[in-house]
Amino acid sequence: MSGGMKTIEIEVLRYIPEDEEQPYHQTFVVPYTDDMSVLQGLQHIKDEIDGTLSYRWSCRMAICGSCGMMINGVPKLACSTFLRDYPGKVRVEALNHFPIERDLVIEMDDFVDKLERIKPYIIEKAPKPLSEGEHLQTPAQVEAYEQFSACINCLLCYAACPQYGLNPKFLGPAATALLHRYNMDSRDQGSAERMPHAHDEDGVFNCTAVGYCSEVCPKKVDPANAVNINKSESAKDYFLRFIAPRGAPKGAAE
Amino acid sequence: MSAKGTGMRRPYRRPMDGWWRKNPYFVEYMIHEATALFVALYALILLAGVVCLAQGRAAWDGWVGWITSPLSILLHVVILIAFAYHAWSWFHIMPRTLPPMHAGGKRVAGATITRAGLVAAVASSALVLLIAWGVAR
Q1: Do A232 and B99 touch (CB under 8 A)?
Q2: Which residue of A has its CA nearest to B13?
């Protein structure tokens, strides 16, 4: 590294469960260039200063969703956030609202359970035989779900959702966005299996329309929209039972 | 996941105390939510007027006397500011709460929905003001 290289202080929230009772802050001075991401700053720390630093990463190009963390208090992907935008100092912490496993690594079992619960795959009542050809969709049918399919499960939206922080049982933004993504797909007939999770005590009505989840999404998904559309869907489902009793053909609702 | 809760694993859960003060976005959200209390307060003021009207002339005159006092006018100015902020922030979040709408084969932009809502709020307020003015003259 050249003598004229700029340096930045990277303050990291460390947590080493076998040594410390509580997380603590540790500051590292890291040389950097304008093209270096926060992730590259962390890699410098791990490679050159302190090999015990733990964090998740993989693709380095904002598609794997592994390197979500709080950067100066804002949930961001470390790979697509640049050190040059934080002159002098930057604070890096594990994603808010999740238990810290170690340093910047969070425990994400809760989300994986929720993801499994909403059945994030196409459910066909009667699978179409191959001989009948492919499933065709109009541009309008694709548009109905396309943006929600961009979710990379990075969990920034959960770190942005105070309601999830206050009640971790809340289904939350990404799981609801994916529930909506499959419900809106014209090839899918699985709504009835997913909607009980939206109607649930810990379902969509935990959302108070803070809207920060959609602001922080690195893939321009609008999870707040998915959650709020499903509030209407859930209310409609509740009141329609008085007009169309359960067991009546549901196709008319589409 | 069989190691959960055993061995070295000891996941640390951070407290949520003061969560809304830690991010300007949440502060703004709390201000938005708090201004809803002024909306409720104004509904109560109007309701008190209706109750006084039902109780007869003396009660009604008493309410009118209070409503025209300097303290009440000051309170109304504060409520108006709170209402304006509540309306602005409410229409700001509205595009996120509505199902997608289409016009001319294209999805209506969020900013258009916000603008339409604000225009509707200003227009209906002006209409109510005009009617009230007409009645009072």
Answers
A1: yes
A2: A99
